[in-house]
Amino acid sequence: MNDRPATGWLARLRAGLSRTSSRLASGIGDIVGKRRLDHETLEKLEELLIGADLGVATAARLTANLAKDRFGKEVSDEEVREALADDLAAILDPVAKPLAPDPAHRPHVVLVVGVNGSGKTTTIGKLARAFRAEGRSVMMAAGDTFRAAAVEQLQIWGERAGCPVVSRETGADAAGLAYEALERAKAEGIDVLLIDTAGRLQNRADLMAELEKIVRVVRKLDATAPHDCLLVLDATVGQNAHSQVETFQRMTGVTGLAMTKLDGTARGGVIVALAEKFGLPVFAIGVGEGEDDLRPFEARAFARNLMGLEA
Amino acid sequence: MFDTLTGRLGEVFDRLKRRGALSASDVDEALREIRVALLEADVALPVVKDFIEAVRARAVGEEVIRSVTPGQMVIKVVHDHLVEMLGADESGLNLAAAPPAAIMMVGLQGSGKTTSTAKIAVHLRDKLRKKALMASLDVRRPAAQQQLRTLGEQAGIATLPIVPLETPQMIAARAMDVGRREGYDVVLLDTAGRLHIDEELMKEAAAVRDAVRPVETLFVADALTGQDAVRAAEAFHEKVHVTGVVLTRVDGDGRGGAALSVRAVTGCPIKLMGTGERIDALEPFHPERIASRILGMGDVVSLVERAAETVEEEEAEKLAARIQKGQFDFDDFAQQLRQIRKMGGMGGIMGLLPGVGKIKNQMAAHNMDDRMLARQEAIILSMTPAERHNPKVFNGSRRRRIATGSGTTVQEVNRLIKQHQEMSRMMKKMGKMGKKGLMRSGMPGLMPPGGGMGGRGPF
After folding, report:
1. Torsion angle, CA of B130/B135/B141/B143, rounded to 10 degrees?
2. Closest Cα partner for A219 from A190, A188, A252?
3. Do B257 and A156 make contact, defined as CB atoms within 8 angstroms?
4. Is residue A282 helix, strand or coil?
5. Which of A49, A191, B178, B355 is a Cys-bridge partner for A59, taking CB atoms 3.0 to 4.6 Å apart?
6. pLDDT band at B41; cut points 50, 70, 90
7. Contact residues, chain B, for A56 at CB < 8 Å
8. Using the 8-state DSSP alphabet, how is residue A103 labeled?
């Protein structure tokens, strides 16, 4: 999914983010226009950033940064947006890394985790398609053995992507299923194994222990697995994302994030705060319900789009 | 759900309470901190601003600054406004229509519509004795209709048979038809998750609503939502006219800002909230109690209600009779452990008690959670029936055997036996007070004396 032509996805990302950015950008336009940058203006700027879920601390830092050399000066709307976009891009740039399966691993095991309803199964389906398009062989493990019909949902994605799905009946042990899937993937020389898991709230200790067990069991077959652990975040999530990243990272060693549902009005601005705090790569973003609506995350484009600027 | 917010507000209030007199600047500072606390709890910005202004207007008034305990007064003002914001009166589902009454569920993808649909059907059956038919109008997400059918099968709720290639309108019409012919009280329509900016899908939802004329159109909102909660809620309200809100994932450690915001911008009451993954984990939303919970004052009323619901009347009477005779054995002990777990475990109970935020953290630090209950039960289950009835027989070798059998240590077994002794001593004292006394004493009795809590009981 790295070498997709830039025009296509940029346009789509912009379409997806435009609602977010136009609101944010027009908001800034209203506030700044062409006048002196004063306390009141700064406060409103800060509130706008908070409204985009950047969080109080990050918003305060960004506005303070802006004020440092521009306070009291005449500034245009464009200038403010450019400056904020640059700051955002600087924060986001280090985390914009795609999910790159290591060919040395056969299979490269990706464990996908997240809270209920964040879009894990859909993301896996889209990832499978993207990897298939790159010519890799993919296997999926329907590890959400809790939610009704989650297995069927993944099977339909398996048909769409043309890859096998390892599944058991609902209620079966997810760790056992993961083990079996890895065994099969190894035997068949599969490139990438995507393991789905049941959604769980990060404050449920028992369910988090279950995730740990999956990791433990998978390691019996391959001590280096899972090679990646992808935490799926819903763009509508607010500051709770901090707690989600923290807990999932502690329990399963999250190696990267995916943010879904960016085609709504949710800004997913919390990703900026997460980048500052955790520095975890953002592997991909979801911008729609279509099968190919999973995109690599690009810092500059994301930041500029967030500010309503041309990439 | 409100833990973090409660913690933050608690700090602010603690500082206020320590002051004798409050100046206007004290109040200002507290309000600034409350503002940040609310924003970090994902309460929508416009809602926060209104809230702060309303509280300020009342808090800087003479009544607060002159009162004997100004800190307390500010807390009261904040509490009153929270209740106002959450909706002053609780409101249940409206079913006042010629049966079958239609209830339509709408919301964003992944907010919890399907699970909530099944939970409401169970709620209607178990609490209101209404027969419900569920139908999934989600023809978009793979296997969505199967999901509802499976949930229905698990819970024993009827679902509309799936006919492939039907449009949502057709499914809705068929559901109402079947509901009418087969005498259902309520028909629950679970729609596909959609973005509020997807004009086409919003029109589709509106068309279903116009055709079916539901008595309730419930917007399902995720308690973990950030600032976007208000935008989605507003849009849904505008386009399909929402009559109430179901708040989901209230059992998460999210800060619940969405609850405060959604109610404030739509003016629709929050009617129900989802508090767990189990099919019966759905509770009525009580604004007054939730406000108290947010402020760390606890929700004792809910606790008592939950206890009353979970504890089987008959069992309790039997137990009470035995205790009056001074026969509280390990079987009874195990029974009580199970009851606690049924009531939502330690965490669930603690969350409802006043001022337990700190104790909760302590408990977590000492690993005192539901696993402890499970271990205690395991110990009891590793005893022979004779041992359970006659605790006097325990010697060293029996204790060792029980520890091995339950995968625990002798120390843990000793602790449990000691705990049982203390409990039965207390129960003898309470014996004459009958059932009510038992309920009151049973819970503190379950806390291990000195076990992990530094010798202090939490109550």
Report:
1. 90
2. A252
3. no
4. strand
5. A49
6. confident
7. 36, 39-40
8. T
Q: For residue B179, what pLDDT is reported?
A: 95
Residue A200 CA to residue B253 CA, distance in Å, equals: 12
* Own/partner long-range contacts of A45-52 (Cβ < 8 Å, ≥24 apart): A45/A80, A47/B45, A48/A24, A49/A269, A50/B39, A50/B45, A50/B227, A51/A24, A51/A27, A51/B44, A51/B45, A51/B227, A52/A20, A52/A24, A52/A267, A52/A269, A52/A306, A52/B227
Distance between CA atoms of residues A123 and A101, nearest Å = 16
Query: Is the interface score ipTM higher than 0.85?
Result: no
- CATH number, domain of B407, equals 1.10.260.30
Query: Are the beta carbons of B217 and B243 closer than 8 angstroms?
Result: yes
Q: Which of B253, B230, B252, B240 is nearest to B85 (CA)?
A: B230
pLDDT digits (tens, 9 = 90+) for B215-252: 999 999 988 888 888 888 999 999 999 999 999 988 87
Give the structural domain span for A33. 9-95
Same-domain status, A211 and A238: yes
> Which CATH number goes with the domain that contains B77?
1.20.120.140
Does the beta-carbon distance from B110 to A234 stay under 8 Å? Answer: yes
Return the exposure string of B272-284: e unless at least 16 CB atoms fall within 10 Å of the residue's CB, then b: bbbbbbebebbbb
- Written as six digits, the tokens of A213 are 């067990």
Q: Does residue B269 have a cis bond before it (omega within 30 degrees)?
A: no
CB A130 within 8 Å of CB A286? no
Contact assignment for A117 to B222 by CB distance below 8 Å: yes
Q: Are residues B52 and B105 in the same domain?
A: no
pLDDT band at B398 (very low <50, low <70, confident <90, very high): very high
Asked if B328 and B401 sit in the same domain, the reply is yes
Query: What pLDDT shows up at residue B7?
Result: 66
Chain A residues touching B140 at Cβ < 8 A: 289
b/e A185-218 (16+ beta carbons within 10 angstroms → b) = beeeebbbbbbbbbbbbbbbbebbebbeebbebb
- The answer, yes or no, to whether residue B457 has pLDDT greater than 50, is no
Q: Which residues of B touch A150 (CB under 8 A)?
A: 143, 147
Q: Count contacts between A and B (CB, < 8 Å).
A: 144
Contact B1, B253 (CB under 8 A): yes
Other Cβ atoms less than 10 A from the Cβ of A34: the count is 10
Q: Do B147 and A270 touch (CB under 8 A)?
A: no
- Residue to test with chain A: of B150, B190, B228, most A Cβ within 10 A: B228
- The verdict on a CB contact (< 8 Å) between A235 and B228 is yes
Please count the structural domains in chain A. Answer: 2
B251/A201 CB distance under 8 A? yes
Q: What is the CATH number of the domain that holds A29?
A: 1.20.120.140
Chain B residues closer than 8 Å to A265 by CB: 195-197, 228, 231-232
What would the pLDDT profile of A132-179 be if each residue is shown by its tens digit?
999 999 999 999 988 888 899 999 999 999 999 999 988 889 999 999
Query: Which residues of chain A, if any, have pLDDT below 70?
Result: 1-35, 308, 310-311
